[in-house]
């Protein structure tokens, strides 16, 4: 009754099932790894945002790389904005996915070093594609700024190409090393996404806080793949039993037909 399992159709079906089971198990393990990675990143972000603010020079210095643990840490800095060397960062979006610019303004610290401050988003227009756009001015004089510490942007990490031949005072990536060369000054590694002082009047739209990655979705996908892996052998058994039942019924029908006496 089970000889049909040796037929070409059933051999292929069985081999496919045997291949699907470990594949689905491995896909579930991969999704669980993704869950753990996302959960760990969410924890790092949460810890950084809840940490007590510290002076920016406690976490960075000229030429220093911002680490994963330092990213999003709230820092403070005392000094003044230098709008003469202000630039805008092209092709940036706001919370409504409108394309515009980020305003990057050098903030000169009391010791003469420079901190790059991303003051927020402004909309673009046709003229700003070829010229420096109109940018709201920052507060004048000495002040204290607060913001989230961010690492330098790179093409490898962001996917944004650092194009050449851009209009004057427009850039594609925020990179302290490039800005140090442009300014001819000591620039602290990384930059700060400004959160304070609170915006007043016609000021750039400040950047939103980083959101949590949906780690729960990866966990659900992992469970789903493992359920599929369990379902494959269960489905195979159901198909085999159905085939056996159909063959038995067919055999019983054939036997009844053979036993029926021929009509006279």
What's the structural domain tally? 2
Query: Mean pLDDT, as a whole number?
Result: 90
Order of helices and strands: HEEEEEEHEHEH
Q: What is the number of E strands?
A: 8
Which residues sit in consecutive blocks of at least 5 with pLDDT less than 50?
Answer: none
Can you walk me through this structure?
The protein has helices spanning 8-50, 155-158, 176-183, 215-259, and strands at 54-55, 74-81, 87-93, 99-109, 114-123, 143-150, 170-171, 191-196. By secondary structure, it is α/β, with parallel strands linked by helices. The protein folds into two domains: 1-50 and 218-241; 56-196, no CATH class. Strands 2-4-5-8-6 form a five-stranded mixed barrel. A hairpin with a 5-residue loop joins strand 3 and strand 4. Helix 1 (8-50) packs antiparallel against helix 4. The longest helix is centred in the C-terminal third of the chain and has 45 residues, at 215-259. It is elongated and about 115 Å long. It starts with 7 loop residues before the first helix and ends in a 5-residue tail after the last helix.
């Amino acid at each position: 009754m089970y000889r049909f399992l040796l037929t070409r159709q059933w051999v292929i079906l069985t081999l496919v099932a045997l291949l699907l089971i470990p594949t689905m198990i491995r896909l579930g393990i991969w999704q669980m790894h993704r869950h753990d990675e996302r959960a760990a990143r969410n924890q790092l972000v949460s810890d950084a945002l809840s940490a007590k603010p510290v002076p920016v020079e406690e976490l960075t210095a000229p030429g220093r790389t911002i680490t994963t643990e330092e990213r999003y840490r709230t820092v403070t800095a005392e000094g003044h904005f230098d709008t003469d060397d202000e630039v805008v960062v092209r092709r940036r979006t706001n919370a409504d996915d409108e394309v515009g610019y980020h305003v990057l303004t050098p903030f000169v610290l009391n010791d003469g070093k420079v901190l790059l401050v991303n003051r927020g988003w402004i909309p673009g227009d046709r003229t700003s594609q070829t010229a420096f756009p109109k940018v709201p001015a920052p507060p004048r004089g000495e002040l204290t700024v607060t913001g989230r510490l961010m690492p330098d942007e790179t093409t490898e990490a962001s996917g944004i190409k650092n194009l050449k031949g851009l209009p004057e005072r427009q850039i594609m990536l925020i990179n302290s090393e490039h800005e140090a060369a442009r300014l001819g000054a000591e620039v602290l590694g990384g930059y700060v996404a400004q959160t304070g002082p609170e915006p007043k009047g016609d000021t750039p739209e400040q950047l939103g806080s980083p959101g949590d990655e949906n780690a729960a979705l990866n966990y659900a996908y992992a469970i789903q793949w493992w359920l599929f892996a369990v379902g494959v052998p269960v489905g195979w058994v159901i198909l085999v039993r159905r085939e056996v039942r159909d063959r038995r019924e067919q055999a019983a029908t054939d036997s009844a037909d053979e036993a029926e006496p021929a009509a006279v």
